[in-house]
Each structure stands twice: as C-alpha cells, then as structure tokens.
Design brief:
alpha+beta; 13 strands; single chain; 10% strand; six-stranded mixed sheet; 499 residues
Length: 499
Amino acid sequence: MSWLVTLILIYVVCVLLFHLYVRYYVQKRDPTRQYIPIVVEPWYFPFFGPVLSMLDLETSLKRWQTKYGDSFTLRLIGKNFTFIHRDADLKKFYHAPEEQLSLLRAAVVTIGDTTPENQYLLEYSAVPYLQVILSQPFLRTMVNKIEKTLVDYFNPTNGTFWIEHGDETVVNFMEFCYRLIIRMNCESFTSQRVYQNHVDEIIKIFSLLDSEKQTLNPFRKELEKIFRRNNNRDKLWQRWIEIIKPDMDRCIKMIEEKIEPPEYDVIYEGVKQAKKELEKRGQSFTPRLVAFFVYMTFFPAQLNTYSAAGLLLLRYMSHEHDEIGQRIRADIEHVTKNSNDDITLDDLNDMPYIEACFYEVIRYSTDAQLAVRHAGQDILLSDGRYVPSGNMIVTSMVDSRKLFSEPQKFDPDRHLPPREENKIDPYRIAPFGRGKHPCTGERYVKMQVKLMLIYLSKMCHMELTKESLDYEKLINRKQVVGLSRPSKPVYVRISKRQG
C-alpha cells in the first residue's frame, strides 16, 4: 500500500505546483491585469485535465463561459488557448491579417507533426498553389476527371470496384468513402500516369500516414516522437516523392524550355510554385517541396471531406423514401437530364437542395469543432483586455446551435429561402471560414461530394445493413477536430445497379 500512498502524494504535489505556477507565476507577469487571465479548474489533472474536459467540449464551454464570461484562457499541453465568443471579437478573428492571427502558425501547433514535411508549413505557404489549381478553369477540368474516375470504377460493365468485390458487397462505409476520396484526388491532383500506375499504392500510403488519427490523438503523436516511431512515416514519404518525381522532372524540363502545358497540369503548377519560392530565398530546387505542396491537396480530404461525403450519402440512404430523398433525386434528375453528355461545373452549381443538404450535414456534425489562430501580436478584445502574443485564439461552432430553430432536427430547408438561417450570423456560422481566412477548397469539396452522390446513386444501389440502421447513435459528438463521425463501423450493402 505504501506505493499507492506515495503515488497519491506525488499527484497532490504535482497539482499544487501546477496551480501555483499558472495562478501566481504566470499571472504575476501581468501586474496591470490588462491581459485575459489563465483559467485552471481545481479538479484538473495537472497536465491533461483540459484535454479530458474537451472530450465533452459543448458542456465544458457552457460551464466555462458561465463562470468566466465571454473570453477566457486555458493552459493546454504547454500552450495558452484563449476562447472568444463576442460578435465583435469573432469579426476581428476572421478579418485579421495573417501576421496578426495566423492560421499557418496554428497549424504548426495543432497538425504540424502529422505532416511529414512539417518544416515547410510556415516557411512555404501552400495557399498560393492551392488558389491556382482550384481556380475556375482548373475546376472545370477536374469535373471531367472526377466523372471519369467514378465511371471507370463503378460502371456496371467492367468497373474496377465490381471486379474486386463482385456484384454485391458489404463495406465499412466511412472507410469506403475515405479510400474513394483519395482515389478521386489522385486523379485530380497528380497526373494520369500516377493515377493509372500507382493509385492503389497512394491510397495505402495515405492510409498508413494516417493524418486524421495523428491530428485527433496528440498523445499518440507525442509518444511516437519520444520513441522515434516516425521512421516508417519517413519511408512512406520518400516513396511518395519517388512516385511523383518523373512528373516533376518532366515539368522542370518544360519550364527550362519555356513550354506551357497544353492543359491542366497540377504537378507543373507545383514545380513552378516551388521554384519561385526557392529562388526568392537563393535555394536550390528540391522535389520535397513539390511533394509537400501536392500532399497538402490531399490532407483536408483525410480530415473532413470524406466525412462530409459519407454522412451526406448516409442521409440519402436513410431518407431515400421520404421527402428529403425525393428532393435529392429531383436535383440529380434535373442536372442529368439537362446535361447532354458530361455534367459541367455550371450544372453542379445548380443543385440548391443537395447543397442545402451538404451544409446541413456539416451543421449537424460540428458539435465540437474549433477554429484556431495563433496571435502574432497582442490582440485587443472588445472588453478592453488583450490576448498576449503567442496565445492560440479559439472560436467554436458550438454556439451556432443557439441560432437555429430545432437544432437537433436534420432540416436542409433551414439553408434555403425564405428561412436562410445560415445567414443569421456570418461569424458564428462559418463552416468554411470568412473574411481573410476562407477555406480555399470549398468549391472543390462541394463539387466532389455532389459528383459522388450523383454517380453512386446512378450506378450503385446502396442500403444500410440491419445492424447499422441506427448509425446516428454511433456518431461521436465529442471530437475537437473535424466533423463528428461514427466511432464504430457503419456497414452498407453496395450492389451493382442494372439497366
């Protein structure tokens, strides 16, 4: 029993020391009390207490806001996180320039080690590259590429999916969507050569890199660093570079000979962007930077895109025989009847009800999603106090539920005229960001998810298996990063649609 008593005493001492450090030493550096104080709840475990409380973020935020007001700071894994709720502060949050509130620096803290080449996150922004390849002309080409991928994979005559699985199979549906999204991104964001020869290997590489689990589990990430478990990640990353390097070499030669690509070529844009950034710094070209730029087109898909697609398709299956399902089919039929051969970007933009379903899926699944920025300088809040430089500033989607009527009901009409509840408060309802911090890939994601819905409904029959009919009960609504998704497999029977 002596060891247990010793352990309890050590725990008590650690708690006391931690509280003394935060409450007195850290706070003492602000004698004028112009900064927001750091909050430490007395029941917290000295280091991981805030993490444990954030597993039930909605409840914790309500309690903290009631006790400490609209702004408060938590010390979490060695960093100070300041939560803001007032409208004026939220507006500043979304309109502050990058040097004041940096998304990239926040990414280094929150997802940095999930990216094999995380040293590039701050020094070489992937945003300009993404803005180019996700511009309107390239998006139009991507529509055709994604259509081709889906048709080749699922067509009833010789689709690869049916060759691999037979005419009917049961799949873990979220995993199925994850792999399908990576397959489509391989076609859109690499090259035809890579897609034809390496798509299955790339799916395996990204599944093993496992960025989602690395982001959602910071403790696992830290343990892997301590025990040097990243060697396998380095090998996977090296293989990723080897796969796309022949296309890099081709594009370098084109740039040297001043040859413009005849059509959409994302690797070419990546090489051009990398050469430009490296030359500004007087550095020699490295294929690792191009590999990083291309990787960053896949990364969001591993966190949110597949979840949004999977949850939308599950909604379609569960509502197939009611009004919601009928209106989804009406949108699909409107587009497919009006398009002579291929669906165009303009067609996809003319699907108001499916787009409303897409936004409703996101709203319904953001119980605990956070938006985070790093303060590059002291930030003045509306109550006259400052957030110190170096803090992480956080806003939450949780409060947005107060702005919706019957928030527990899945109701796409809330996003359509005349209701348009999603426009009530643009700074609390911001699934794709606002102002100077919008999501670069919003248009691509919506386009991709709509195409998945159109083609899977046309070429496959999908139904929830008996054990997964109540899949909503499996959804984990306590996640801090990404959309809430099922914590256990949801099984769907997929069969070939004849005729």
